[in-house]
Amino acid sequence: MSQTVTRALRILAQLGEGERSLDQLAEVLGVHKTTVLRLLQSLEEERFVYRDAAYRYHLGAGLFALSGLALEQRGIRRIAAPHLAELNNATGQTVHLAAYEGGEVVYIDKFDSRHPVRMYSRIGLRAALHSAAVSKVLLADLPLPERRRVVAGIDFAPHTERTLTTPEALLAELEKVAAQGWAQDHAEHEAFINCVAAPIRDATGRVVAAASISVPDVVLPYEQVLDLLPQLLATARAVSADCGRPEAI
Amino acid sequence: MSQTVTRALRILAQLGEGERSLDQLAEVLGVHKTTVLRLLQSLEEERFVYRDAAYRYHLGAGLFALSGLALEQRGIRRIAAPHLAELNNATGQTVHLAAYEGGEVVYIDKFDSRHPVRMYSRIGLRAALHSAAVSKVLLADLPLPERRRVVAGIDFAPHTERTLTTPEALLAELEKVAAQGWAQDHAEHEAFINCVAAPIRDATGRVVAAASISVPDVVLPYEQVLDLLPQLLATARAVSADCGRPEAI
DNA sequence: CCATCATGTTGCAGCATGTGCAACGAGGGT
DNA sequence: ACCCTCGTTGCACATGCTGCAACATGATGG
User: Locate the HTH iclR-type domain: which residues (chains A, B) (predicted)?
Assistant: First the structure.
């Protein structure tokens, strides 16, 4: 593990919260400002940061460029986008696309609701493994050993009264999800938000991503969210078909 | 300047071109694989990279998250977005938003054309300083000393027959742009693309960003691109007004 | 079924490189 | 004109990065 790189990344994280001066960064990192300066120079050279006329450092455009490349590399995102946009348009609700990567579930695309009350989320953020509907869909498809391993590593922090709080409960839920082909989050993560999620499969049948609809209670009650399930499943099947999955056509 | 950080960022750049194995990265960087491994471990910890089941490294979600934060921080982007979307919708053409940062001009937002023939660009990429219309708008507002300094540093690579190839020609063009309040790129960057760009100003009157319309020749001839200028200028004024610029209201 | 290969990981010694200090310089406010 | 703040530079020291070599693991093929 590289101390230097870790420090550089901590600088980026800091700048993610807003512009910073050299001294501010030095203080937060607990290192001498000379050290910070040189890290920043390297970051600036690659356009990960830039500094304005007032010598404040900001996140730079190299980051956007790289992030754009990273998102483009996920073929699933490009394939799914038109279908998810259509689902978003048809339902008017927030639609997410999430993928499993390295023991986490991450949102890789998002289409915002047209309602004024909206769920907070952002591309790149992690979904809670034990409560988000997309997580259930993705975990449910993992081979059992890995599924157990991941579940064992979860911090079962209760977000609401309905949050599953034991590995056993989650594993049972995942079995159910795998069997029925979709997952729900009935106020398990946020007290006033319900979600449904469905798997997207590639030609080999493996789940490569999950699509979900998230609706605040005040917009639609739980039962009516379940009514959206057929549309969601149709969308997921359509994306799967575009991924080359024969049965889904 | 930190060798270690520079190497880490080179790793990210590599991964931007596609997945890589440890050995591949070691070879490209010209360092021992042990070294690469430890850099990757630090990057992985902050979710800048992740590795799949086949031990291939990919760009990770931490990057998306940070990039999202960075874009959110640019208030101008949020302010401009609805106006640019409307312009995109009204004209059907590709609309860009660009900003000057640290001696470069960078695209910070983009709304794609509905035409099948589209200009290639991506958020985060640099615009050519001596040919892109947005660059002219942004450079034209710099204080003269900095303007001269930046122009002196440009590599006047000719992209097409019409590309300006001398500092003098560019400086003269910038004077003209500053006077008329908009800029054009008449096939100076890509032989078959014409652009017009307009400045967005904040309350102090400084140009904080530039909006542009880019149209391939085959879609609209040059003269008709100029016909779009009134709409573009109206959009730029509307965004400026939202930025608090009194005269623009 | 074992041999071989390819690839990732670990321990360790040496020294390159990152680090902090102190002095310097530039800009802004009083 | 002075001081105060904040970024930059030169330098000596030792931290922590680097490469080597040995080990571990999983895949491939005879």
Answer: 2-61
